[in-house]
Write a structure and sequence with these properties.
With 721 residues, the protein is an alpha/beta fold. The protein contains 26 helices and 26 strands. It starts with a helix and ends with a helix.
Length: 721
């Protein structure tokens, strides 16, 4: 009561028509309790006005004999109104012997009398009772109000909570379902009495695994609680809904039980399933990705071991797929991949698993359950799927694949070793010329390790600029003067020494380092050309021949490189010639024609290298801005031994001259070869018989001696004249 009283201030209304009486009463009451407020009224009418504005008084002390409205009349009016009818009123009167008079006061609504002359102790004792009653009443009202507020908040939470709430007793009898629980479970309030907790919670993982009356009672008695467990709840129709739930027990004097709070996690489960699918599948093709492929291989190995059958893993890598992206764009490349996936899936069996492992690489698992699978039948079948052109966004694309095959249990005991072996076999197929398959053999692993080391070393060679240029002269067949000098790239390996391009050019193309390699080669070669031209060592009619890759020829990379070099070094573009291979030219003839015309407009010459090894269209040869054809060394080497090659050389030279093209014959290694080529009409000659590739310093000395030889020859002619 003390704590409550400091928050409540009781008020006493004293009504008397004499001010001296009011003063005495107020002083007496103030002496009783400083926390009591006293309000005065000089008449019954004034008292009514006060009560009309504020009726919160713990007691009214009223004189009975007052003019106008006496105490009886005023009390009658006070008791007539709702807000004041229960207010305690004590009459103060000098008439106390007339019993009928006193009864009249009680009938009017008074609760007591105090007779004049007033006894202080009697007055204060009676006033104190009503002050205490008032404070107790206010404390009870406050407690009740708080209880109602708490109850309202609880009801609000229960009614509007998005979680289902189930209250049950220690025997598992459901006592209460909130509206969300009713909606999720499909039960109505009227049916709660017949529900048991075991009717709601499914017997699965978690606390709901084996609900029974004993389980619930034990959980409640032992104060068991659970948080954030996943299970399922069962609707009135028997449908299971995934949920996350928490359980807590309670024990009160009335009864013991527990509370189950659950959330419908159907959407969360779907989201989790979507995340798992996204993590294990390729977004472009919807095939399993490398993660799921590895898991599937491990599972297949376990099944194969249990049932004692073979397992075959194949890797399929598209040949030169990068060119499709580089030349036709990634949209075409993506469409091509999707079409290829459908083809691969069409040749498999329903039990086989196809996966996209990344980029243009696919994996497939075959389980030989019936012991009748033949890799030498399936691998060619896969290759055959690539024989027909594939239509992708208005492009008809012919592409091949290389297939690596490994069989379990012959090689590998887990997914990692099988996948590695299939990958190694696939690279073996590529090294065999692509568009073929290879079965894994243990000795292939050594070559794969060597290739991997070569790739790492080559990346380091690019970053540390270990590449150098060698230069091989191309001579005029008529007077043996310098017609051109071909730039040949070499790699100065810190441990292996000079590495020939036949070992690392394919690595550069495979790792995507070919553009950076060409940047370095162009920079070194054109810097030398600039230097030789400025010093007068470069023959005015000679060309510096630069080899170009397929990637450079696409998407204007070559044009950008040449312009950048033109800004960096001082040289004449008319002194530069680019060499492209016949096969490169025909990959996208229209795009090649556009780029080559831009190259010619810059003043450069163009030659086709390795002519005769591809499948050129004579129509394109006529239309393209080409200056020179280079006959491949494979035809030159058999001069004098193969009449057919000699006829091809003669026909090629005649064809080139008909198209107003000049001819360079590569691979001249003997005097007999040189004599034949001169007689056949080859305009230029190149080969070891004339000069081996030279370093920059050696090439510079060669140019100096050639300049001196030419000067001496001219001087001799003047003397003769």
């Amino acid at each position: 009561m003390k704590n409550t009283s400091c928050l409540l201030k009781p008020r006493v209304l004293i009504v008397d028509d004499r001010e001296e009486n009011l003063f005495v009463l107020q002083e007496l009451i103030n002496g009783l309790d400083n926390d009591v407020e006293v309000v005065q009224a000089l008449s019954g009418m004034e008292a009514l006005h006060i009560l009309a504005e504020d009726s919160d008084f713990c007691l009214i002390l009223m004189d009975v004999q007052m003019p106008d409205l006496d105490g009886f009349q005023t009390t009658g009016l006070i008791k007539r109104y709702k807000n004041t009818k229960d207010m305690p009123i004590i009459f103060i009167t000098a008439i106390f012997k007339d019993v009928s008079y006193i009864h009249h006061g009680f009938d009017a609504g008074a609760v007591d009398y105090i007779c004049k002359p007033i006894d202080d102790k009697v007055l204060l004792s009676k006033v104190n009772v009503f002050i205490d009653l008032y404070r107790s009443k206010k404390a009870l009202e406050s407690s009740l109000r708080k209880s109602k507020e708490i109850e309202e908040r609880q009801n609000l939470i229960l009614s509007h909570s998005q979680d289902g709430i189930v209250v049950f007793d220690k025997f598992g009898q459901v006592l209460f379902l909130n509206p969300t629980a009713e909606e999720i479970l499909g039960h109505e309030t009227e049916s709660v009495e017949s529900l048991l907790l075991s009717d709601i919670v499914c017997r699965e993982e978690g606390f709901g695994q084996a609900w029974s009356a004993d389980d619930v009672r034990d959980a409640v008695e032992n104060g068991v609680s659970f948080r954030n467990l996943d299970s399922s709840v069962k609707t009135s129709e028997g449908r299971k809904i995934p949920c996350s739930y928490s359980f807590g027990s309670f024990d009160s004097p009335v009864y013991s039980g527990g509370v189950l709070i659950f959330q419908d996690i159907t959407q969360r489960k779907k989201h989790e399933e979507n995340l798992v699918y996204m993590a294990t599948h390729d977004p472009l093709t919807n095939l399993p990705n490398r993660i799921l492929f590895k898991e599937s291989v491990n599972n297949a190995i376990a099944r194969a071991q249990r049932s004692n059958y073979k397992l075959i893993v194949m890797f399929i890598d598209l040949d030169h797929f990068k060119r499709v992206n580089d030349e036709l764009g990634h949209n075409v490349g993506d469409e091509l991949l999707k079409k290829i996936c459908r083809r691969l899936q069409s040749i498999g069996r329903k039990v086989d698993l196809f996966a996209r492992l990344g980029g243009d690489e696919f994996g497939v698992v075959f389980e030989d359950i019936n012991n009748n699978f033949n890799s030498h039948v399936m691998a060619p079948k896969i290759l055959k799927a690539f024989e027909e052109p594939i239509e992708a966004l208005d492009h008809s694309i012919l592409i091949s694949g290389s297939v690596g095959v490994v069989e379990f249990p012959e090689y590998g005991r887990d997914a990692d070793s099988l996948i590695k072996a299939a990958d190694i076999a696939m690279y073996q197929a590529k090294s065999q010329g692509r568009n073929c398959y290879a079965l894994f053999r243990p000795e292939l692993e050594d070559s794969a390790i060597a290739r991997s080391q070569l790739e790492r070393d080559f990346r380091q060679a690019i970053s540390q600029e270990q590449l150098i240029c060698h230069y091989q002269p191309i001579l005029n067949a008529e007077d043996m003067s310098v017609a051109a000098i071909e730039v040949l790239v070499r790699w100065e390996h810190p441990e292996r020494g000079l590495v020939p391009p036949t070992e690392f050019i394919s690595v550069a193309e495979h790792t995507g380092q070919v553009v950076e390699m060409s940047n370095q080669v162009f920079s070194m070669a054109l810097s030398a050309l600039s230097d030789w031209e400025s010093r007068g060592l470069w023959p005015s009619t000679a060309k510096l021949a630069l080899n170009v890759s397929a990637l450079q020829l696409s998407r204007d990379i070559l044009i950008g490189q040449l312009k950048k070099m033109g800004e960096k070094y001082t040289f004449n573009f008319s002194s530069v010639e680019i060499e492209i291979t016949e096969s490169m030219l025909m990959q996208d003839a229209e795009e090649s024609a556009r780029v080559l015309k831009s190259v010619r407009n810059m003043g450069l010459s163009i030659s086709i290298d390795d002519f005769g090894t591809g499948y050129s269209s004579l129509n394109y040869l006529r239309r393209l801005p080409i200056n020179v054809l280079k006959i491949d060394r494979s035809f030159v080497k058999d001069i004098g031994h193969d009449r057919g090659d000699e006829q091809i050389i003669n026909a090629t030279i005649d064809l080139a001259h008909t198209l107003n093209l000049e001819v360079v014959s590569e691979g001249v290694e003997t005097e007999a070869q040189m004599a034949f080529l001169k007689n056949a009409g080859s305009d230029y000659l190149q080969g070891f018989f004339l000069s081996r590739p030279l370093s920059r310093a050696a090439m510079e000395e060669w140019l100096k001696s050639e300049s001196q030889r030419k000067a001496g020859k001219l001087g001799g002619e003047v003397d003769v004249c």
